[in-house]
Amino acid sequence: MNQLNEHGITHLRHVDLAVTDFETQRTFYKDTWGLTEQGRDGDLSYFAAEGSPEQYVIRLRRADEKRLDLISFGADSTQSVDALAQKLGSEGVQLVSEPGTLQTAGGGYGFRFFDIDGRTIEISTDVETRQHRAIEEGEAIPVRISHAVMNSNDPNRTRDFYANTLGFKLSDTLWGEHMGEMMHFMRCNDWHHSLAIARGPHTSVHHVSFEMRGLDEYMRGTGRVMRAGIKKIWGPGRHNAGNNTFSYFLDPSGNTMEYTTELEKIETDQWHPAVYDIADPMTQDQWGTADPMSEIIARDSFNAPDKGVFVAPPV
């Protein structure tokens, strides 16, 4: 893999959500979304993607308030974890925990900190992998977690934090005449983006995306979720930036979840980020099968203001 992150950050591991409707959400992720409940631990539930070696890609926590608990990224070594923690501390980034043995499923070694918007971010290494398998033809379940997109009311500041502090590279940007820069796609490996920052009214989860095996499996999964009566926000279609397909749904607690496939890999170090005008219909959907992007569609993914800003999750 080329273009490795200068601080040893390798990939997106998991996104951890606190929800008020725990049992409803467990049923949704197992029976409708196609993840495997890998384990239960009291008020925690861990969900794996069958095609991924990660212990889990979504963690649910039963809570009185809905919030993002944390986003976890992998690192290539304990040395990288230690060096990054020391760097962040010296730059005034607030550490939530010092590097040490992790108490969560799969163990490992890592630390947590608040990003510039107050999200809890975890960097970890040496986490045990799980037995995974090749997803078969026609099997419409997620292969892996693809990317996480977060709302920020100052997306350029957030982009700069991830670029300058954590070594993420900018892949592309969406721009609108009235709103300015609307979304920044950031990468830490050769996938077009593992993280994106969207312009929103407040800090919150915009969406979490899952890679499907191929176009047929992506469409079958999209249809299954639609038939289950889950609200589809947008799609199916194919974005320009990243060249990936999209179908967005609202999970029962109001977080947007996406099925995608064929996300672009960036094979060249001479990549020049493009700025795509959202007024061009091809920017949002090359196929023309999705409804045109509108304020109504956009508003669905603004989400509620996150209750977890600058508050570390209990676990």
Automatic annotation (TrEMBL):
Residues 11-126, 144-262 form the VOC domain. It comes from the Bacteria. Pfam families: Glyoxalase (PF00903). This is VOC family protein. It comes from Nocardioides luti.
